[in-house]
UniProtKB/TrEMBL annotation:
This is DUF58 domain-containing protein. It comes from the Bacteria. PANTHER family: BLL2464 PROTEIN (PTHR33608:SF6). Residues 53-250 form the DUF58 domain. It comes from Paragemmobacter straminiformis.
Length: 294
């Protein structure tokens, strides 16, 4: 006979899930639908059935690679290339720390809400293209299909963590796969360094997307101000907040430069997105970067 307590918990979980999932999923699918994908392809040469392009033959190309019909119309010998169609494995890490819950009056969403939206919209695009998508940590390995999308939504809708600032988790990244890290990256930089090193050791390539609130970018504070972390463990009061602006902006610029350098060193891409901006340009950049188009 079913356990009444278990049945009650399942009902509560289902109702909670039903309230949170449809808006997130609907918004992500709507955002993804605005990107006209056309016939999906990996846009690089390799094994596959679909024609991609003709290119001049190079030394070392075998005779069977040459398209003699196309070559007969020119003085140049051409090779017919097919599009590479092997599915990739893409692993997502979305910062769930307390710092990501920040939202100033200059934005309509928290950093966490925007990061989750971008992650899920990217997953929609990738899954539609036949890729495998999962989450770091090992509990949600990359898989394909509509069922996997629902699994991702459930995981991304889980409660925020207890840490003040997050550090990327490289566990679960597939060898020679792809990875997407979304965070404000305002915590200890060592965590980013470690995760990128581990991902690089596995031959993985990917992107860092820094999500910041407009107030974190512009520092529009002046006079008496109390700065407090979202978890309350860090607090600083000043009577002249405006005097801190130049130093803060310098530190922020240094952090961005450091993230850019770390990404470049391992063949990754870096992008900074503000929650006050529309999400579509960031999604388009993210999708092109992870597909190798940038």
């Amino acid at each position: 006979m079913p356990d009444p307590d278990l049945r009650a918990r399942l009902q509560t979980d289902a109702e909670t899930l039903g309230q949170s999932l449809p808006p997130l999923l609907a918004e992500a699918e709507l955002l993804a639908s605005t990107i006209m994908m056309g016939e999906h392809g990996r846009r690089r040469a390799g094994q596959g059935d679909e024609f991609w392009q003709y290119r001049p033959a190079h030394p070392g190309d075998s005779a069977r690679m040459i398209d003699w019909r196309r070559s007969a119309r020119s003085d140049t010998t051409f090779v017919r290339e097919r599009e590479w169609q092997a599915a990739q494995s893409v692993t997502l890490w979305v910062d769930a720390s307390r710092a990501m819950a920040f939202r100033s009056e200059r934005s309509t969403v928290t950093k966490a809400e925007r990061a989750r939206l971008l992650a899920l919209a990217a997953a929609v695009l990738l899954l539609r293209g036949g890729e495998r998508v999962g989450l770091s940590g090992g509990d949600t390995p990359p898989r394909s299909g509509k069922t996997q999308l629902l699994t991702l939504v459930r995981a991304l809708s889980s409660p925020d963590g207890a840490q003040e600032y997050g550090a990327p988790d490289a566990d679960g990244i597939v060898s020679h796969g792809r990875a997407i890290f979304l965070s404000d990256f305002l915590g200890r930089i060592e965590g980013v360094e470690t995760a990128l090193a581990r991902a690089s050791d596995r031959g993985a390539r990917g992107v860092l997307v820094q999500v910041l609130d407009p107030a974190e970018e512009d520092f529009p504070f002046d006079g008496r101000t109390i700065f407090e972390s979202m978890g309350g463990s860090i607090s600083h009061e000043t009577l002249r907040a405006g005097d801190l602006r130049a130093r803060y902006l310098d530190r922020l610029a240094e952090r961005k430069d450091r993230l850019q350098s770390l990404a470049r060193a391992v063949g990754w891409h870096f992008h900074c997105h503000h929650t006050g901006d529309a999400p579509l340009p960031a999604l388009l950049w993210l999708y092109r970067a992870i597909e190798g188009g940038r």
